[in-house]
Amino acid sequence: MSDGLWLVVGLGNPGPDYAGNRHNVGQMVLDELARRAGETFSARAIGGARAATAEARLGMLPGGVPGPRVVLAKPSTYMNVSGGPVAGLAQYYGVDADHVVVVHDEIDIPFADLRLKTGGGEGGHNGLRDITKALGTKDYVRVRVGVGRPPGRMEAADYVLRDFAAAERKELPWLIDAAADATELVVTQGLEKAQLTVHTKNA
Q: For 77-95, how does the pLDDT look when each residue is reduced to its tens digit (9 = 90+)?
C-alpha cells in the first residue's frame, strides 16, 4: 500500500468558535499529522476546493523509508458541505476513493475509542453524507474517533457542537495521538492490517 497518493481529510467547522468542539476532532488529528510531518497548512484554494492543505509523507515504511505521499486537507466549509472540497481535491490530485481517508467524530463509539472502516452508512453524520454524495461512492476509508453519546435528552447536534468536557480534555491529547497513529497505519500498511492493530487495542 506504499504506492499512490493519498488524500487525508479532517472534518470540522471553520473558525475559532468551533475549534474545540467535539465535531472538530478530525481537524485536531490533521493538525497532529502535519506537526509530525513538519508541514504547515496553506489556505490557498487548489482545484477550486475550499480547504487548507499540506503535502507530506506520512509515517515510515520498513527499513526506515519515509511513508507514502499524502495531501492533508481541512475543508474550510461548514461540516455539512464537506463533500465539495473533498471531491474537488480528489479530482485535482487524481486520487481514487479507496485512497481517500476521512477522519471524523463518531457519537456511536465511546469516547477515546477508535474504529476504522470503508464503506457502509454515515450514521446520521451530515459531513460524511455530503462526501458520499460528492464522491458518488461510500467506498472511502473512515477513521472514526469516538466522542460518545450525548447525555440525557441532549440533541446529538447540540452535543457535537460543544467543547469536550474537562475530564475528556485530559485524555484528548492521547486520543488525537492514537487517531494520528491509526491514520498513519492505514496509509503505510493498508486498512486490514490497520484494523487488526487498532481494533485489538480498543477491544
A: 999 999 999 999 999 999 9
